[in-house]
Amino acid sequence: MVVLTPANADNWRAIARVRAAAGQREWVADSTYYLCLSAYGDLWRSYAVEADGATVGHVMWAVDPDDGSHWIGGLVIDSEHQRRGLGRATVQALLDLWEREEPSLSGTPYREAALSVSPDNQAAIGLYRSLGFVETGEMEDDEIVLRRPRA
Ligand SMILES: CC(C)(COP(=O)(O)OP(=O)(O)OC[C@H]1O[C@@H](n2cnc3c(N)ncnc32)[C@H](O)[C@@H]1OP(=O)(O)O)[C@@H](O)C(=O)NCCC(=O)NCCS
């Protein structure tokens, strides 16, 4: 349903156009910020979320150097494309990618997925819970942490 393509010279402009809806922007940064974080930092990897040949979202991932967990970040489905199952398909595609490819991609075996989310962001929390993520009681800045052991 979705294809994840690493950010590259061909797709970064389309990723930069991905926008959350107005009422959602307190929960995520601009996709340009995520692209820069991935390009200039040494942790995150940005991907275009593609469906039916169009770029419909952004997602990035990183391995926590302390505990080896695989983190999802910067998940945004463009406001024009939400509520069509693309957010769920994106998270599932990342879990599948790690199952299939790790440890070749990062050098770290895939054992556990993790993410943080604003406690107000009920739509995202509903999505993550439906995929088996569970709150742990940890906080990451002002966000709650959810984890999901490898199936
Ligand atoms: C959260 C987000 C990625 C979901 O993407 P999406 O493609 O709209 O989600 P899906 O269509 O795959 O829906 C999956 C589940 O998410 C939840 N959900 C998504 N949008 C929702 C909404 N507006 N209200 C309530 N629940 C919602 C539901 O549980 C839904 O399952 P259901 O359709 O069986 O009810 C999208 O709303 C988004 O980009 N939001 C802004 C950025 C953001 O908050 N990112 C998360 C940061 S942690």
Automatic annotation (TrEMBL):
GO terms for molecular function: acyltransferase activity, transferring groups other than amino-acyl groups. Residues 2-151 form the N-acetyltransferase domain. Keywords: Transferase. InterPro entries: Acyl_CoA_acyltransferase, GNAT_dom, MshD_Acetyltransferase. PROSITE patterns: GNAT (PS51186). Transmembrane segments: none annotated. PANTHER family: L-AMINO ACID N-ACETYLTRANSFERASE. This is GNAT family N-acetyltransferase. It comes from Aeromicrobium senzhongii.
